[in-house]
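INTERNAL AUDIT FORM
Audit reference: QA-55
Scope: verify that the stored structure record matches its stored sequence.
Auditor: D.O.
Record contents follow.
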Amino acid sequence: MNLNDARLLIEIARRGSFAEVARDRGVDPSWVSRMVAGIEQALGFRLFQRTTRRVALTEAGEIYLRRIQLIAEELDQARDDALAVTRGPVGILRMTATVAFGQTVLVPLIPQFRNVYPGVALDLLLTDATVNLVSDRIDLAIRHGPSVTGDMVVTKLRTTRYRVCASPTYLAQAGAPTHPQELAHRPCLRFALPGFRSRWLFREATAGPVIEVEVGGDITVSGGLALHSLALAGEGPALLADWLIEADIAAGRLIDLFPGWQVTATSFETAVWLLYPSRSFLPRKVRAMIDFLKASVEGGA
């Protein structure tokens, strides 16, 4: 069996579907099925159990795939190391991030990254849905929250601080609140996530008491960029991440209503995280992007 056959089997095991692998490769599913059948016949045992909807590794298939995956990764690393001597990091880097972080922070940095690493092509998936890094073949993911769990390698990119902000136009019309509790009595712009849409938490000092403020309003949206745009348009106060509004606050387009308070909807200790699948080696293209982002993103760890 050659290396291309090994890669095909590894991809099928990750995706759990002949049809999905065929779609990724732009071939007919029957071609994938024939290839697997031929490999199984040559090996003398069945690698996959087939159903009408999914395929899964047999016990023998799990043992076999575990070994050939290690071999394939060793060959990838050997090629990676050899190419790096003359050309630097190369290959396609498949990344995912939320729409708001991708458009606000990541996309503006791409020209600089490409200038430094012209051999790395980028396949960027911006989505607010949770992506399976293994089955969707993601090399590097950017996630948000107090922590990240799962069988992944995780490193912190930057701390996130949330701010309640509003536009000068809104404040001229409605007046500026002097205390967080006043938000309970005026319509707010709310993010359609648990906690974010019903109550915000405030703390005046690092170890001070936490004040819980019930928030309501006529506008709830599911996207951070839309919430940001509505705040800029003067539709009300919004709870937004600092990386999304730093430029607007500096330019006076948005006003931080409570600069002396910490605020959140979930945890006061939250961050932006970089995740990648646990592997026996880290491709140089992934390491290049991790190092570049840590050096380029403000507020980094």
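Auditor finding: record pair retrieved intact. The mean pLDDT is 90.
Action required: none
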